Amino acid sequence: MNLPVIEVFKSIQGEGICVGTPSVFIRTGGCNLNCDFCDTSYSWKDKTEMNIDGVLEFVELAVEQGYNHIVVTGGEPTLHWEKMEILLERIGREIADDPWELYTTVETNGSLYQAMYSAGVDLVSISPKMDKINDAYLNSLRSYVDEPLGYFSMRDMQFKFLVQYKQIDEDLEKIHKLMENIRMERIIDHVILILQPMWHKDDDYLKVTQQIADYIQTPEIIHRFSGFHLRVIPQLHKFLWGNQRYK
Ligand code: SF4
Questions:
Q1: Mean pLDDT in residue range 151-179
Q2: CATH at 78
Q3: Distance (Å, whole) CA 168 – CA 164
Q4: Each residue of 30-55: b (16+ CB within 10 Å) or e?
Q5: What is the 114 CA–ligand 1 centroid distance (Å)?
Q6: Which of 95, 192, 193, 205 gets the most CB atoms within 10 Å of its CB?
Q7: Rounded distance between C-alpha atoms, residue 41 and residue 33, angstroms
Q8: Residue 224 placed within a domain
Q9: Average pLDDT score, the chain
Q10: Residue 135: domain span
Q11: In this predicted structure, what is the pLDDT of residue 151?
Q12: Is 246 part of a structural domain of the chain?
C-alpha cells in the first residue's frame, strides 16, 4: 500500500508541549487551506507517495536508535486519515513493544474533524487558521474538543496560535473569542492554549518572544485567559535552523 507521505525524517519537535523531544516526522502532502504564512507550502502540491513498508522501516530503525516520539504532520494529515490510521495501527502493533512505548502526536489545522483517540494518538495538536474560520471549521473544532470528554480526561490536546507582537491585542482578542466559541458550555481542562510568536527572518525572534511573554503577564490578559492553560512557546526549530527543510 502506498501512503501520501512526502518525507520522513528525524529532528527535534520544535513546537508545543513536546518541544525539544527527539522525534520522527512523517509529513503528508496536500492541504485544504493555503495560508499566506505557510512554512511548508512545498507540501501542498507534492503528490509523492511512499510505500507503507518503507515508512515502517524508517520508523523502526529510529525507534531502535531510541526515538520514541512520532509526529504525523503536513500539509494536512486528516485529508488522508484512513491511510494514516492504518500506518499508526501498524506502528503500534509491529514496532512498539508495548502500547505505552511510543508517544504519537498528530498536527492538524483542525478544519476536517477525524476521530483520533481510537487510532492511539496521544496528543492532538490543532493550529486553527483564524482567517479561514467558518461554521464548518468551527463545528470541526468543537468535535475535537468533545472527543476526549467522552474518552478520558487529561491534557492531551493543544491549540496553537501564531501571534505577532505588532498586532498582539487584535490577535489575542480573536483567539479568546474563538476559544470561548469552541468551548461554549464545555469544560475543557484537557486543552492547552499555546501562543507561538510568528517567526520572520528579518525579526529578532528572541526579542519578539520576550515582548509577547511580557505582554501576556499584564493583569488584564492573565485575567482574560484564566480559564485556559495559556503558554507562550516559541518555535525552537526557527531559533536553531530558521526555515530549513527537514528541521
Ligand atoms: S493549514 Fe498549515 S500546512 Fe496548510 S497551508 Fe496553512 S499553514 Fe500550511
A1: 87
A2: 3.20.20.70
A3: 6
A4: bbeeebeeeebeebbebeeebebeeb
A5: 17
A6: 192
A7: 10
A8: yes
A9: 91
A10: 2-241
A11: 55
A12: no
